[in-house]
Amino acid sequence: MRTTALAAMALTALPLAAPAQDLVTRNRVGLPDAPNTMTFRLTPYDLYSADPATAEKFAELFSDFIRTRPDWKIETQLQTGNIGQEQARLLQQTQAGRGPDCAMVDSSQLALFKENGVLKPMNATFSDEEVADLFPYVREAITNEAGDVLAWWWFTDLRVLYRDTSVVPDAPQTWAETQEAALAAAEAGKEGILFNAGRWEGTAFDWLANFWAQGGELVDAEGAPVFGEGENRDRMLAAIVYAENLVESGAAPSRVTSITNYDAFNAAAAAGTAAMFVGGNWQYGQLRNTLPEEQFANWAVSELPGPTADQRATGTGGWAIAALTDDPQKAALCGEMAKEIYAGPGNAYQGLLPTSAALYDEYDAYEGPEFNLFAEALQNGVARPGAAIYPEISNQIQIMLGDVLSGAAEPKAALDAAFAAAQAAYERQ
Amino acid sequence: MSARGPAPADGRPLPWLVPAVAMLALFYAVPVLDVARLAFSDATLVRAPEGWSLAALRALLADPALGQVLGTTLIFTAINVVALQVLGLAIALTVVRGEARGLRGMTAFRTLVLAAWVVPGIANGLIWQMLFDEAPYGTLNSMLGAVGLGPVAWLSDPNMALASATIANLWQGTAFSMIVFYAARRGIDPVLYEVAALDGASPWRTFRSITLPLLRTAIAVNTVLVSVQTLNTFDSILALTGGGPGRATEVLALFTFNTVFQNLDLAGGSVLALLLFAISMALAALVHGWLGRAPA
Description:
Strand content of chain B: under 5%
CATH topology of chain B: MetI-like fold
Mean pLDDT of chain B: 90
Helix content of chain B: over 70%
Number of helices of chain A: 18
CATH superfamily of the largest domain in chain A: Periplasmic binding protein-like II
Number of strands of chain A: 10
Number of helices of chain B: 13
Number of strands of chain B: 0
Distance between the termini of chain B: 34 Å
Order of helices and strands of chain A: HHEEHEHEHHHEHEHHHEHHEEHHHEHH
CATH class of chain B: Mainly Alpha
Order of helices and strands of chain B: HHHHHHHHHHHHH
Largest sheet of chain B: none
Structural class of chain A: alpha/beta
Shape of chain B: flat
Number of domains of chain A: 2
Largest sheet of chain A: 10 strands, mixed
Oligomer: heterodimer
CATH architecture of the largest domain in chain A: 3-Layer(aba) Sandwich
Distance between the termini of chain A: 66 Å
CATH class of the largest domain in chain A: Alpha Beta
Low-confidence stretches of chain A: 1-17
Low-confidence stretches of chain B: none
Largest interface: A-B, 46 and 40 residues
Radius of gyration of chain B: 24 Å
Helix content of chain A: 40-55%
CATH superfamily of chain B: MetI-like
């Protein structure tokens, strides 16, 4: 009896004593001989981050998590940064029964996964109060009509206007004020305002805030494109002309049509060549870590300007974790991992914006004044539509903006072409 | 009577060919046939085929973007194929001449050119994206600015963006042509050049009358290979411009990729893949028929 008890203690103590590096390998979390296995497909930004400190922090969080579940191991599968392709492959594999048990799903793809019925409820993990505390657009995206929790959207992000206050002291509130401030900066030898206008998702997503601020809608209730008809067409045109005027007037350099990543803005800020840029909230921390203290002190964030001061919107994104397995135990483990690692301490460490209001009070990491601005701007947050046609609409908007801003097409012709292409693609779906 | 006995395949070659044909069919013909099957379906990336029709083909033919994409592909391919041959041949002949004269550093020079070839397409695109950066501190524009030139709208101007994508492709692809021509040039009997020298032939006459005719087969093979390679190029353009601004640098391979992975339209992407396949085959047949024939 005593021998059995000692053996049991030893078995229990082993995982507790195992150092973090033994429990986390390149493709596994937990002990290799654990009897139960959950497969998890994740992005390369946390546990396997290129930043050693972030990877170490997440290895520690995962180790603590798995130590309390010694019967489990998590087999990890890494997604590349090519989000569209990876998510399409994930959905295809899951439908064919070859997908992982648990995976990170881009928030813009959640609706597609929901529509195809591959997300399995994780109700056992999340209480009604926790669901009720989520931002409304998040709650709507992760639950179905029956109230099942089909995913956990663990962080969100938003777009804001960054400005060098030594050049632009007051935050522009409207499109007209933005152009005026950018022109003044350009005359002073700076690049007035930078924004994404190259051929990638960031271009469409950032610019759509100008359309959404006017109440524009990309798709109808059935998911069919409607952005090129009726009032939506007028709103689209107004937003295109705003961007066109920025470039034509010299308020924005023509090189914006070649910008296809947010790092270009950090580089311009570091070089001191840009007065303003439309960027993501996560760039605030990057600037703080990159710029000399006195230079960083000049940079401030504000809500994206609207056509008028009271018409505002900002695109919100982020990632969710979803169970793709019919096994309730694995689904529960997937939910617990999202809740205990990512939504709480993981977010706080990385400075990512939680989707639950209570978490902003729980962690000291969210005490900076910028988080008050982010929280305020999130009230005007708009998520990309949960429609399968969205990626193609985004593609067409990227082409439309590129053509208009490079002078290859007029706004009306470019919009009509984009709308016709999106409609044709919708009919093919 | 023959000096040897009958070979195993004499009279009945078919059984001996079966393994090779089966392997080729498995790895090449089956995927092509599957793409052809999908082209006549309504398959999407997230839905298996449920019906069969010509709808995907009709949609493609009605797509106003196709003309622009084919035009861009034609310009991109034509310029690249010609320039790749000229640059590859020039470098190969320079290396051969350098080696013949015992110049030091020829191996290092050859290795340097080859280094570009082993760079993955995506990395190639990213490298040139940094060089072409139009920011006030962009590499090439800063260099031009130092001598009072520029700035050049490398990637933001639609016409210039296609030229920039071509430069990036040439930088990477020239090494392949160089290898082909270098090997072919080394295969030419040196006696021919010695005779030409004794006859007092000028370098240009030697090139025109000996080198070029004897490289005819290599040029034909290389033209086919680099044409197909260039037609299939999408990764470096994806990283460099994403196909933009607008559709200015969207070649057929990238258009196919976008059709499948942006619009999830597997049937439409399959039609485009077949089109790409047909163009490649036609080009190969054309070039082979034109340049591949043995001189009379």
